[in-house]
Specification:
Distance between the termini: 52 Å
Order of helices and strands: EHHHEHHHEHHHHHHHH
Strand order of the largest sheet: 2-1-3
Shape: globular
Largest sheet: 3 strands, parallel
Number of strands: 3
Structural class: mainly alpha
Helix content: 55-70%
Length: about 325
C-alpha cells in the first residue's frame, strides 16, 4: 500500500468508513458496527488504513455489486418488491444473481440435511455454477468502476480476494494498454516459507474458478472437487485464530486442509460423508485424519455396514 497513491478497498462506500479514516469514529466502534467475521483482523487493518490516509493516501471503497446489494436490502426493508425493480438496471442484475446464488445455497443445505451424498454433491456443483455467475457479474461491475478511478492516479492498489482472478482480466481489458495491471498474491512468499502445499485454493474455490473461466465445463473432475469441498468445509477452521499469529495459523490451517482432502478419492468422500456431516469441526477433523491414517481401506466404524452403500466408481444413487 505504501508504494501506491490510491488504495481501493473491496467494500461498499459507507459514512462509517469515511469517519473512521478521518478519526471521527473509533476503530472499535467501526469494527463493532461492521459485525465482521474476523474482528481482530478488521481492527488491525482499520488502524493501518487510517495511518495510510493520514499520510495522504487516497483510500476509497469501490464495490458496486455490494453497494447495489445494500440498497436492495434497504429497498425491501421499506416495503419494496422484486417486481418493482427495473430489469434493465444493474440493480436488478445484482438482485437476480444474488437470488439465484442464495437459492442454490439453500438447496445445498436441504440436500446436506437429507444425508444423501449424491444429492449433496450435485447441489455443491449447482451452487458453484450460480456462484461463478455472481462472481463474473461482480468482477465485471467492479472492473468498470475501478477503470474510471485508477486513471486519476499514478499508481493504485486494488484490494481483492484471491478468488477474484477474473477481476484482473476484466480490469486489464477495461484499461487496455493505458495502465499496467499486475496481480500480487500477498501470501505466496509465506506459502513458500511454510513449505506446506502449493496454493491457497480449496477444492470449492477451484471448482468455482473452473466455472468462472469455463461456464460449460463438464468432467468427472467436477464430482471429485465437489466431494472434496464437502469434506474441506467440515474440517477447515471456522473461527478467527488470534493466538500465535506470527506463525500464520490461518494460512497453515488452510494449506494443511487442502493437502488433507487432496488425498481423498470420490469413494473416500462418499464413505466419510455420513460420519462427519453433522459433526463439529474438531470431531470431523479427527474422523478424516483417522480415516487417512488407517490407509482408508481399513476404515471401520460402528454401524458401517448399515450406513454405507455399496462401492461404485461413478457418482450415482
Amino acid at each position: 500500500m505504501n508504494r501506491h497513491d490510491a488504495i481501493f478497498l473491496e467494500d461498499p462506500p459507507s459514512d462509517d468508513l469515511d469517519r473512521m479514516l478521518a478519526g471521527d469514529l473509533s476503530v472499535d466502534d467501526y469494527v463493532e458496527a461492521a459485525d465482521t467475521e474476523y474482528p481482530e483482523f478488521t481492527g488491525q487493518m482499520s488502524f493501518l488504513l487510517r495511518k495510510m490516509a493520514a499520510q495522504g493516501k487516497i483510500v476509497l471503497a469501490v464495490e458496486p455489486f455490494l453497494k447495489h446489494l445494500l440498497e436492495i436490502h434497504e429497498f425491501f426493508a421499506e416495503g419494496g418488491t422484486p417486481a418493482e425493480l427495473n430489469p434493465d438496471t444493474d440493480q436488478f442484475r445484482v438482485y437476480a444473481a444474488e437470488r439465484d446464488a442464495t437459492g442454490g445455497l439453500l438447496a445445498f443445505y436441504r440436500a446436506a440435511a437429507s444425508g444423501s451424498f449424491v444429492k449433496t454433491v450435485r447441489a455443491v456443483k449447482e451452487f458453484a455454477r450460480l456462484d461463478a455467475k455472481r462472481f463474473v457479474l461482480r468482477d465485471r461491475m467492479r472492473a468498470k468502476a475501478l477503470a474510471e478511478k485508477v486513471r486519476l492516479f499514478q499508481s493504485s492498489y486494488v484490494e481483492a480476494g484471491q478468488i477474484h482472478v477474473y477481476l484482473w482480466r476484466m480490469l486489464r481489458a477495461e484499461l487496455e494498454l493505458e495502465i499496467s495491471v499486475k496481480p500480487c498474491f500477498l501470501m505466496m512468499p509465506v506459502v513458500r516459507d511454510v513449505g506446506v502445499g502449493r496454493h491457497l485454493y480449496g477444492p470449492g474455490d477451484v471448482l468455482t474458478l473452473l466455472y468462472i473461466f469455463h461456464p460449460n465445463f463438464h468432467s468427472p473432475t467436477e464430482d471429485l472437487l465437489a466431494a472434496r469441498a464437502l469434506i474441506y468445509n467440515k474440517v477447515i477452521e471456522k473461527n478467527e485464530i488470534t493466538t500465535s499469529i506470527d506463525t500464520h495459523p490461518h494460512l497453515r490451517n488452510e494449506l494443511e486442509t487442502i493437502e488433507t482432502v487432496r488425498q481423498l478419492s470420490l469413494e473416500d468422500c462418499r464413505r466419510l460423508f455420513p460420519y462427519i456431516c453433522r459433526e463439529t469441526t474438531e470431531n470431523a477433523k479427527r474422523q478424516v485424519h483417522r480415516y487417512i491414517r488407517n490407509e482408508k481401506g481399513a476404515f471401520s466404524m460402528l454401524s458401517v455396514a448399515a450406513r454405507e452403500k455399496r462401492p461404485e466408481a461413478a457418482l450415482t444413487e
